[in-house]
Amino acid sequence: MQLAIATLLSTLLVYTSNAGSGGWDHDPTSMIGPKYWGNVSAICRDGRKQSPINIVPPSTIYQPYPALNLTVPEGNAVFKFGNGGHDVSGHPVVSSGGNILLRGGPLGAAYKLHNIHIHYGNKSMPASEHSVERARTTGELHAVFYNSSFTTLSDAAADNSSSAIAVIGIRFAAGLWVNESYYHAGLQSFFENVASLTYKGNETTHSFNMSDLLRPEDIDRFYTYEGSLTTPNCQETVQWLVMEKTQYVRSTLIDAISHFRSGSTLTSKLIIGNARPVQALNGRTIYRNFQIPQSEPSIAPSTWRTGNAPASTTPVVSTTTSGVSPIAAAPVVLTTTVLVFTFATLKN
Ligand SMILES: [Zn+2]
Q1: 142 C-alpha vs ligand 1 centroid, how far in Å?
Q2: What is the dihedral of CA 320, 186, 192, 228, to 10 degrees?
Q3: How far, in Å, is the centroid of ligand 1 from the Cα of 119?
Q4: CATH architecture of 49-343
């Protein structure tokens, strides 16, 4: 009997410690890691429209969507930033000016901003959630919006509609360059604002302008598809908008949050690496709103898989050597391979 009580107590203790982080984590070796999220919500295991996914640009379909459009009411530039245990995020403090709204693209209505948060790794451990040609970048920022016909994100997530929620994904890579203009100022501002949130529950309030994070040129080229939230309960109510461009952040800013904890003590797990593995496409179509030039290779060179890519506005399809990193030579290697192949074909 004593043994039974001891077992029960230890079970309760384990449950309590898991419950502290919501009963799931991103650790692939953990018993509550992504492989076991089906125990939290069956949709995570059985769903057919799960996210994130791997994007293969030549397999995507062009659609001339209207431009995405972000409206930031005047004076609405205060965010509450917090360490939520699974990620670090910023929530807009809604002023009398109203909500920050997203319209356009495939969206048939105005969508209200819920939060911005990041999934991140480091230079040697890429942790963007979406991959392109199986290549992940250092991390991915998500700007989560929900259809303004709902009162809260939870209401939208509980709906059966496949587009109750819209999430913008911006993949970013760590860099270290002299030229400050290579970095994305809005993204860097996010990192600076969360830099002190080491432990779960830490919060701070700062001014933050969404117009600097999602400038028109940041959201002009995107992939879009029907998917899900990438954390439990994995509801399949998300119209994804994954930006084509990789943005760049000073590596020291990303390194500064590498020690962030998923709990309130120094012994709790690290948040870094908080990316879900890519999920099966299951026949879904991925659309894009931009043309891929026929003459340029659309396959990302394998040497960019660390996410430590050179600065460029369109790094995935770039064939120039204008970057300052030695890795900039990678596209030339690919082009040479293509030329050699063509030559060999002609010879035969
Ligand atoms: Zn996310």
Answers
A1: 5
A2: -90
A3: 6
A4: Roll (3.10)
